[in-house]
Q: What sequence folds into this?
């Protein structure tokens, strides 16, 4: 009697099918991994923008809330306005007293728009009755802060681009001045649209805050 030794193994067709299934699983897995990485990067970019915007808004609202003599303005040139009221130009001493509302924000889409106000006390600048200015410069997509007589400094990160920013101010006229609208405390609303510096194809992130003057406006 003769015995035949049979050796089992994979056929060529089985190997091809196995490789095809393996390639499919790897392709799906790698695709899912790349999607997760891209999503995580988008979330980190969003977090960076929102954190920076929150910091900028918090910084502004803390000072705006305790200020007085609000003067809102919008101009196409930093040199526009009368001598003491050029609130956008570096180095000017903002020693004027008038107040001015911007109930429609930057309705004429001017290059610069912002708000000047007298600091509450002197805890920030160490000088009593110093004016502080916050303004938006549409030429470089940044929001600036400057103290009377000093150069403006950006308060937003270089990683983000401010696509739009508007200041809405009402009730800036103190009650002691008399006339219409004297029964309202000053109210300031700040609206900002921003995106990552290289995210031109993405929808902007939007934030808005409203503050009421804390000091008794009489």
A:
């Amino acid at each position: 009697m003769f015995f035949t030794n049979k050796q089992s193994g994979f056929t060529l067709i089985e190997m091809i099918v196995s490789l095809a299934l393996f390639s499919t699983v790897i392709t799906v897995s790698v695709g899912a991994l790349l999607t997760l990485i891209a999503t995580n990067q988008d979330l980190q970019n969003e977090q960076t923008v929102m954190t920076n915007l929150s910091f900028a808004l918090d910084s502004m609202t803390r000072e705006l809330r305790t200020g007085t003599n609000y003067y809102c303005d919008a101009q196409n040139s930093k040199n526009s306005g009368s001598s003491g009221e050029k609130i956008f130009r570096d180095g000017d001493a903002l020693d004027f007293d008038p107040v001015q509302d911007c109930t429609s924000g930057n309705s004429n889409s001017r290059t610069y728009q912002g708000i000047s106000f007298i600091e509450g006390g002197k805890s920030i600048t160490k000088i009593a009755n110093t004016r502080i200015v916050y303004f938006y410069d549409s030429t470089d997509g940044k929001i600036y802060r400057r103290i009377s007589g000093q150069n403006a400094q950006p308060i937003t990160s270089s990683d983000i681009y401010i696509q739009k920013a508007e200041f809405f101010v009402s009730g800036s006229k103190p009650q002691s001045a008399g006339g219409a609208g004297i029964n309202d405390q000053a109210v300031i609303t700040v609206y900002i649209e921003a995106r990552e510096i290289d995210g031109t194809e993405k929808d902007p992130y939007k934030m808005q805050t409203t503050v009421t003057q804390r000091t008794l406006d009489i």
In short: The longest strand covers residues 160-170.
